[in-house]
Design goal:
By secondary structure, this protein is mainly α. The protein has 13 helices and 2 strands, in the order ααααββααααααααα. It folds into 2 domains: 1-122, Farnesyl Diphosphate Synthase, CATH 1.10.600.10; 124-281, Farnesyl Diphosphate Synthase (Orthogonal Bundle), CATH 1.10.600. The chain has a two-stranded antiparallel ribbon with strand order 1-2.
């Protein structure tokens, strides 16, 4: 199955490059190539392809779903980097820092539109309304989560988890959700979202542990939403790092459990990723 998914991944890259092309000569062409060629694990595309193989979805429809979720994710990365003023991603200059803010906004918008346009290639038109609604719901959740994250006002760890799940879990669960809809397993949608939300919270905490010095800020005030800082402000003090680690491990365990209940091992790749990250802690 992994070998089959690897072969389909090349088709995903080709389709994304095609959809990122524009008819008029502009810096947007080079900007999008710069971003898409900078690498990345394509986790969301891989989740879609693996689940599609497990649930016997056609290769064409599997690639269509994988392309849509990966375009949405990359659109969010472009806009996030601009909002967070990050100048590097994957060892390369971020799109906005290399080509300017205006080009970055247009590039992200184009990938968002391309994600929806690409989904129209899905073979069963009767399922398109539900697929499109699911895409919009996940995108809306991610946008709301990003706005909450930018506000930096998580007053406790429960709210922090809700923000992390909305911001990252929505687009992480989308590949599984779209495949479940495409194959008639709508009754498992809640499990897919629970698995993705738990994984997203765990992943964000791991990221926060690595970024604690940056997020603490030069003046000692939080410069970003960080689980360790939230826990420290809520009575855990010097033990915040240890509590954050335990919480991340618990959420990865949740993700493994929920993913394992998806039909025909469709969530096995997500469970494997959660297990790998647990090992880092």
């Amino acid at each position: 199955m992994i070998r089959q998914c690897d072969s389909l991944s090349a088709l995903v890259e080709t389709r994304m490059a095609e959809l990122a092309r524009v008819s008029l000569p502009s810096t947007l062409v080079g900007a999008l190539s710069h971003h898409l060629d900078s690498g990345g694990q394509r986790v969301r595309a891989r989740l879609a392809l693996y689940a599609a193989q497990a649930l016997h979805l056609s290769d064409d429809d599997a690639v269509t779903i994988a392309v849509t979720v990966e375009l949405l994710h990359n659109a969010s990365l472009i806009h996030d980097d601009l909002q967070d003023r990050d100048v590097q991603r994957r060892g390369c200059a971020t799109l906005w820092s290399a080509f300017g803010e205006n080009v970055a906004i247009c590039a992200g918008d184009l990938l968002l539109s391309a994600a929806y346009g690409n989904l129209c290639r899905f073979s069963d038109s009767t399922r398109l309304p539900q697929l499109l609604a699911q895409v919009h719901g996940a995108t809306a959740s991610a946008v709301h989560g990003q706005c909450a994250d930018l506000s930096g006002q998580a007053c406790d760890i429960a709210l922090y988890e809700k923000i992390a799940a909305a911001k990252s879990g929505a687009l992480l669960g989308l590949p599984l959700e779209l495949v479940l809809i495409a194959t008639g397993h709508e009754n498992s949608l809640a499990l897919a979202r629970q698995a993705a939300d738990a994984f997203a919270v765990g992943y964000q905490i791991v990221d926060d542990i690595d970024d604690i010095d940056k997020d603490r800020g030069s003046d000692g005030q939080p410069a970003g939403l960080n689980a360790c800082l939230v826990l420290a402000a809520n009575g855990h003090g010097d033990y915040a790092h240890m509590v954050a680690r335990q919480l991340a491990l618990a959420r990865f365990e949740d993700a493994i459990g929920f993913a394992g209940r998806l039909p025909n091992d469709a969530g096995a790749l997500l469970a494997s990723l959660a297990q790998t990250l647990s090992g880092r802690l």
